[in-house]
Each structure stands twice: as structure tokens, then as C-alpha cells.
Design a protein that fits this description.
This protein is of the alpha/beta class. Helices cover 47% and strands 14% of the residues. α1 (11-20) packs across α8 (209-222) and α4 (95-123) packs parallel to α5 (144-164). The longest helix has 29 residues, at 95-123.
Length: 256
């Protein structure tokens, strides 16, 4: 089984690589920080290849793919995980930074998913996993660009599922809430700087990358179309209006 994971150098991507990299599997690990990828690859039992790519540059989204296929054959599982988060008032984010985020979080994964989906349709099988966010369901104050990007990726992923399922290609959309990663820690520190809303931010349900990786593998194997984790955040899908009201009411505030 050939598994591709983007953004594999840290956080959720690293956790997925460690969990899925079992003997007999072939992993293509893609990220900008090749030194971290190389170190990770040496710790994984399965056979791995490392591919350096800056996915915030859309033209690099698929340029490594032919080499990965040459090494391990057609892609069986694509995990679109690479992403970045900006926690700041929307009006304080430069156009350049906002557009870079959108290229990394939306345009590159859509381009890569489309390329791999065409190959999977020819095979009549395969799985694409898109890592969105609970922020795609309930947009979060001071994460405007991030929420917008994950909402776009999630909408694309949900539609892709319905289009490809009849042809045997499975698509999973993953909606993580807060999960303990360097990205989550940085966001938490930003939102609590100066003592703002420590009570709320310090008590929101938070998961682990290890448990999320188990749920993603289950979704791949059992052909679930959606993962929302921690399970507390399933209410955001069922009660979107209430979830948005609570988020707007209790989210930390930052100076504009």
C-alpha cells in the first residue's frame, strides 16, 4: 500500500506517518522541512521516501508526484494534511500572508487531490483524506483566513466524496478540533497572551494526534466519510447555529 502524507514533518502529519508507517507499507512523506522528514523517516518501520516541496507555492503541489509513483507505484491513500494557521485580527493580516495561507490550505490540496483522483478512477479504487478543521463548521474569531480555507477544503472534499464513491474511490473529510500539536500550542498561547480568556481557552476539549491517527485509519479501512474529533465537537455538525453562537459569545478577544 502506497500512502502519501503532506505536511508530515510535524503535528498531525507526523502522527499519521508514525501510525500508518507499518511494515509492508510504503510512505511518501512531503513537506518543506526536509531535515525533519528525513529524521522521521528513519524512525518508521515501513519503507519511506522523503520529498521536499513548499506547498504554499501552488506550482509545487504535484511536481514531486511522478517520483513518488516511480518509487512505490500508484497512490493508494492520499492524505492532504499540510496547512498553516494564522491567529490575528483579519484586518491585521497582510494580503501576501493571507494568500500564501490560501494556496497552502486550499489550492495545493485541491490540485493534488484532483491529480490523484484521476489516477484512482483509472484503477477503480483508492482513498483521499482531506484534513479540514472544526473551524470549517464553526468559523472562529481571529482565525478568519484559516476558517475560510478549511471551509473551502471541506466543501470540496464532501462533494468529491459524492462524485467519486460510485466509481469505487473513497474520500474522507476530517474535522479536528483542538489537538495537541505545535500549531495548536501556538494558537493557544496567542489567544491567552496577556491573560485574555484563560478560563475558556484552558478548558476546551483537546485531543491527541495518536487517537486522531487511529480514527483516520479506521475511516480509511471502514470507508467512513467523515471524522470529527474530539467527539465533543460532533455537536458542531448537528447544531451549527448553537455552536456558532457559543463560539462567538465565549471566544477570546484580541485588540484590532
Amino acid at each position: 500500500m502506497h500512502i502519501v502524507i503532506t505536511g508530515a514533518s510535524s503535528g498531525i502529519g507526523e502522527g499519521l506517518a508514525r501510525h500508518l508507517g507499518k511494515p509492508g507499507r510504503f510512505l511518501s512523506l512531503v513537506a518543506r522541512r526536509v531535515d525533519l522528514l528525513t529524521e522521521l523517516a528513519g524512525q518508521i518501520p515501513g519503507e519511506t521516501r522523503v520529498f521536499q516541496s513548499d506547498l504554499s507555492q501552488t506550482e509545487q503541489s504535484c511536481n514531486w508526484l511522478p517520483d513518488a509513483i516511480a518509487a512505490f507505484g500508484p497512490v493508494d491513500v492520499l492524505i492532504n494534511n499540510a496547512g498553516v494557521q494564522i491567529v490575528d485580527p483579519a484586518t491585521s493580516i497582510s494580503a501576501e500572508d493571507g494568500e500564501s495561507l490560501l494556496r497552502l490550505n486550499v489550492m495545493s490540496p485541491i490540485r493534488l487531490a484532483g491529480e490523484v483522483a484521476r489516477q484512482m478512477l483509472e484503477q477503480g479504487r483508492g482513498t483521499i483524506v482531506n484534513i479540514a478543521s472544526v473551524a470549517a463548521i464553526t468559523p472562529t474569531p481571529f482565525m478568519a483566513h484559516y476558517s475560510a480555507s478549511k471551509a473551502a477544503l471541506a466543501a470540496y472534499s464532501e462533494v468529491l466524496h459524492d462524485e467519486l464513491a460510485p466509481a469505487g474511490v473513497h474520500v474522507v473529510t476530517v474535522y479536528p478540533g483542538p489537538v495537541r500539536t505545535p500549531m495548536e500550542q501556538a494558537a493557544r498561547l496567542k489567544l491567552t497572551s496577556g491573560g485574555k480568556s484563560n478560563f475558556v481557552v484552558g478548558r476546551i476539549p483537546t485531543g491527541t494526534v495518536e487517537r486522531l491517527a487511529v480514527l483516520v485509519e479506521n475511516a480509511i479501512q471502514r470507508r467512513h466519510r467523515r471524522v470529527i474529533y474530539p467527539s465533543f465537537y460532533k455537536v458542531t455538525w448537528t447544531f451549527r447555529g448553537l455552536s456558532q453562537w457559543i463560539t462567538n459569545r465565549f471566544a477570546p478577544r484580541m485588540p484590532l
